[in-house]
Specification:
Length: 184
């Protein structure tokens, strides 16, 4: 197990790994909450999981901003992404970062513009306007679900490709994010 804090040529440091797996857990919860919402809406199970959708989403947004800043700080140290397939992977990673900010971002804009109070993480965040601000609620209603599903689809592709690299092409990429190094 590599215990370096910062990222390096052969893998990711402890900080990046903690961000990665913590966000993976929160995003798994988000995925379960929305799948239950569209399949068995209005059941105790769906209500339980969706009950944490707002708080988890706000936490994901905060972590995405911090993780993005940490990623930029470590950019020149990270394993190189020079081959065409690695460039494509880097593009997908940037798209996921962007959606991790935009998806909860438009939901929060909608909550801000709404006529109802909004709370998350046990805190009251917005009071609710007397009359709804239509462009704000419209933005969320039009884009949140669509981009949310796009993000979840990209994450499925990301998991499949990590598996293909490791198992099919015998490039031990997953180790970089678990043990912290692709070296034995
Ligand atoms: C990265 C974080 C998030 C992801 C991946 C995500 C994903 C999704 C997805 C895919 C749906 C669509 C479900 C359907 O088709 O019915 C949805 C619905 C919803 N989300 Fe999120 N969400 C996130 C964060 C948030 C946040 C922060 C809020 C609150 C501010 C929120 C509020 C809602 C609401 C109210 C709905 C139901 C209405 C709608 O479909 O737009 N979400 N979410």
């Amino acid at each position: 197990m590599d215990t370096r804090l910062m990222d390096h040529r052969h893998g990711y440091g402890l900080v990046t790994r903690t961000f990665h797996w913590l966000m993976a857990l929160l995003l798994l919860w988000q995925a379960v909450s929305v799948v239950l919402r569209v399949t068995v809406d209005d059941t105790p199970l769906a209500d339980f999981f969706f009950g944490y959708h707002f708080s988890n989403g706000v936490l994901i947004l905060a972590l995405a901003v911090l993780r993005g800043a940490w990623g930029l700080l470590n950019l020149s140290r990270r394993p190189p992404h020079d081959r065409p397939i690695e460039r494509l992977a880097a593009l997908a990673h940037v798209a996921m970062y962007a959606l991790l900010i935009v998806v909860p971002g438009v939901a929060l804009i909608r909550a801000f513009g709404s006529d109802r109070a909004f709370s998350a993480l046990g805190l009251s965040i917005f009071e609710g306007h007397e009359t709804e601000i239509e462009w704000m609620t419209g933005l969320g209603s039009q884009w949140h679900g669509l981009l949310g599903w796009t993000l979840l689809a990209l994450i499925v592709g990301h998991i499949v490709m990590a598996w293909v690299h490791t198992r099919v092409w015998k490039e031990p990429l997953i180790r970089r994010m678990t043990r912290g190094s692709d070296q034995e």
